[in-house]
Design brief:
The structure is a homotetramer of 338-residue chains. Chain A has 10 helices and 14 strands. Chain A is an alpha/beta fold and 338 residues long. In chain A, helix 7 links the parallel strand 12 and strand 13.
Chain lengths: 338, 338, 338, 338
């Protein structure tokens, strides 16, 4: 951490600052510049609050040198984290395709869709039981009943199941779920993150609509600090001024997060664009960029879907997308599912 | 709601669409255009899901004509909503100034700060007991103990108290709090909003970092749909590419929200900019733009604050800001506090 | 175009509006709704200014149904546009790789770099002679001398040359240049676009940092309206709140622009991220998403470069990137260069 | 400037870096940290390109300590710059109101509007002769004829005139114009900025839609580096994801730019929101925040305007806005016009 002093800072103010720093257990190194003086801090600066230094009279600005995330940091954990989910492993070089409807709607719908996903080559099943909807008047999901239907679909197809939690108090309901998803709008619901830190379930953590990659890693850090190391990061589009797409897929996040963290990365092309015809090109781009997993919305009958109808693929379209995904995975030497 | 048909849409596909619309209880009116045909929907379209129409074969696009928020809509509720909070009223033309520290830290700190705020003319007291922090390693607030200290500070000063909730499960702890705050990161924590809908406490609902004004109103609608009409909206800066300020205060939100909704509006100049020296000019701008309330961070000793040190005012600075706020309120004929 | 009338609009105001519409040669169709009346406009609405209708007393809002771009619109020009550039063709299914330094610095530098690019398999050469720099104190490019050095490098390597214009008045200097580039900051420099409309040179038009895809197409429309149909669109990253990358590559722009327009699409992975190590993954993603061309910065000695040092590849690194690009192009059945 | 070294950087690489730094005339000071080493640079670092250091093997990152703008920097020029424009002075504590139509359309329109603006108390007249329009099919302005009409309107009313330039080659046409405006889309049209640097006319420089305040100051620096110190900065709204307003007025820019630079600040509430009813509250907010000038669009008959109809005020509405502006200016002790 580096402290840039104000021009003409009073020696007494600087002395007071140094005392504060000493009390926090770091050493101060002075550099006298031609126009400005600087103090370099040596020691464990992770507990120093930037703001609390900023308000000292003599301080002009502060620059952090080290990343604020530790357990998620590849520097301190160079090897990729691979997360087993029943028969699948996420993060070991394989490619996982998590497919299924936006919402679990009926037994018929989830069973038909799950069987179609399995047949097309999906390796995991998704489906929303608790749905975060912008409007209180929209379909809010089947709740507990939806979770039961997912478990039934897993029995039928063997596919591990992924579904979203919205409330830490519901955690017990998720005891038989394979991967717990945290939605974009809850990325900084810290109470929920803390609750998940006490679980040992794999967590699929989605990046918020206006959150930076560093903030995504800090939210992962919340869960990891609680003791749960099984985090899959998911980029699902960020909010920009572009209006043709629902969000803007930040494809650079894949290779860049791979450099910064050891955690596996998933891409959700369905929410990223909100347009079914973009799912295939974005999926292929994501694989090529290095994504460990894809999460794709598929519905046995999108025209009757209760949510996100325009971005869900039909089983036929999904089969065709999967065929091209498989070819690309083959070309890249990446096995699917294991 | 208006449906724009694809060029060359098949009559059968259009007939199928009309059947769907009829089933939803709306009437379809056709307009034959030179290059494109359009269907205007008449009736209660609030329950029609745009996405579910979008996927019909013959549909090119859909345009909504009516706002999706109802109870928060000024069209259906032309008079301003005024919310009593003990002796204060928010939204009746008066000006409220909610002041206090970012976090409640110690008894001494909150009592000193509360007394200073009261003396300078603040009409309500704020202070965080449950703190949403980006890093799990930062100070997380005193929790229940912080709420108790706030109640003690209210006893001493008579100021109604405002503090943030992060988890619907904690609602019972807030029984003796006057206004419950929902932070920007929880604006779309729908489980929390639903819990607050069942309460009758005034809620100070902060706009998310990347949320539109319409989304803010939809989140208010969640609480109102649950039965709680006592919502104060709060603009606290949105995220942009600008880096000199922590966020960008969207001052236009004040007069525009006043047109769209009957709910009172609060501005938080401290979080908006993250810079203490901007609190005064932004506060004055907000009052002039029509804000019903301000929320300002004040700390008896910012240099020792455990969070947000750089944006909290000293009691002396706050007194000087309040003196100019009072002059402006006088000039505009707006009483303070009642 | 659809006009939504205010509730309780006066019949006289509506009659006046209809008169205005008739005068503009369009027909008005009324739909009486339960809560709101709507007018659908039939005819050539491309000359109607939305704003001029908005201010009529009876109008609540206006919705455009048709795209404002015509010549760039795939609807009216279903076949892909292929643009010949000497021996290369951009937009015919082949893949072009435009490589070279950010700036032309010296004869030695551009010749060495050009030869290395050619050797590695680049199909065109880029290099900046007129440089748009944020600071007036930064290197501004060699100007005319830089263009001459590029022409010399073309003589040596046979690679067609691409370079940026910043001023319509300079157009004569570009007579012997193969493709004229318009930088992101000049995307809405309409005087420059008009000047290029009178030329017949291929134009590589970069999307502005905060421009939508529709605005990019409107800027292409400016050039096309002037008579020049040879436009290559280039996505080079847009500005978001993310700070780890210089910009955010909008990969969705590739497949979506392909749907909306017949013009070829280029991706610039070097400027998009501003990080050399991301050039390879972003290039591969772009090809897979359907890009017709890539523009990659290569410098014979990046460590001594006068601009954008951190995003330029060494010749060795570029060779390795090209080897993977070639494999991907082969796999996709896309010939390079022709 | 501070250089953060990679962990385990080779001593030879560091030695090479130091040699480079020495060659650039700056002194390197080492700080040995517990986990990372840092070099602080002392001397004139304004000519060091951050990128060129970034590519050295041993460098992990670079932090700039000093601002890259010099002539615009208040640090080196503590007194406010006041710019005389005929009888008016911008930046001396007075308040200027620049009013007039978006575009000069006809002699009758500009004369009527100018007289109405003068009568209502405007101190300067605006009007566009060269119009930057998103679509090539929209009205492009009267060009030279428009400038002549403005000069005629000045003769009639005595109001100094402000109008936009789009092309450095047109500068001669602006010889009799009082203030030359650079539009948001041309803020980084560096060729135009250079041309204006050679003029001595006051320049009203608008912030780009997605530009930071620092970039605005760098564009001012371009003009100042050319010798022209008469710059008025103008904030006119930035692009965000919010859709209810055309842009988001960054009101914080007023007090913050006042801290960073000595140049006067203008606010354009008409373009910022694109909504006539917001002009008054935003104008009052801007004055209170410290703006030196306002630029407001007024049209003698907005309903017939050829551009931006929905944001232009009628003369009657403008009179009412001006009456409140005057009261506020009186209250703040700010004279209008001189």
């Amino acid at each position: 951490m580096i402290v840039i002093l104000k021009k003409g800072a009073q020696p007494e103010a600087v002395a007071r600052l140094e005392e504060i720093l000493r009390a926090k257990g770091v050493t101060a190194n002075h550099i006298e510049g031609a126009t400005q003086n600087i103090i370099g801090l040596v020691g464990d600066t992770s507990r120093i609050d930037v703001d609390s230094l900023m308000v000292q009279d003599c301080v002009e600005s502060i620059r952090r040198v080290q990343e604020p995330y530790k357990q998620a940091n590849r520097k301190f954990h160079p090897d990729d984290t691979a997360i087993p989910v029943r028969d699948c492993i996420i993060g070991n070089g394989s490619l996982q395709v998590i497919a299924g409807p936006c919402s679990v709607e009926t037994e018929d719908q989830i069973m038909k869709t799950a069987i179609a996903c399995k047949k097309a080559g999906a390796t995991m099943l998704r489906g929303g039981a608790f749905k975060p909807r912008t409007s209180p008047y929209s379909f809010q999901g089947l709740g507990k009943e939806g979770l039961d239907l997912l478990i039934q679909a897993r029995k039928e197809t063997g596919l591990p199941i992924v579904t979203e939690i919205m409330n830490g108090a519901d955690l017990d309901l998720f005891a038989d779920i394979d991967v717990i998803q945290v939605g974009a709008r809850n990325m900084q619901n810290f109470e929920l993150l803390k609750a998940l830190g006490k679980s040992d379930k794999p967590v699929l953590l989605k990046r918020g609509l206006a959150n930076t990659m560093e903030e995504l890693l800090m939210s992962a850090e919340y869960i990891m600090a609680g003791g749960n190391q099984n985090i899959i990061l998911c980029e699902r589009g960020i909010r920009t001024f572009e209006t043709w797409t629902r969000n803007t897929l930040d494809i650079s996040a894949v290779p860049l997060l791979k450099q910064k963290t050891h955690l596996p990365i998933c891409i959700d092309p369905s929410h990223a664009a909100g347009i079914a015809s973009l799912v295939e090109p974005l999926s292929l781009s994501a694989i090529v960029a290095g994504a460990d997993a894809l999460e794709i919305e598929v519905h046995c009958d999108p025209k009757s879907a209760l949510s996100d109808a325009s971005q869900q693929l039909t089983p036929e379209k999904f089969e065709s997308v999967m065929s091209n995904i498989r070819k690309m995975a083959d070309f890249l030497g990446r096995p699917m599912g294991k």
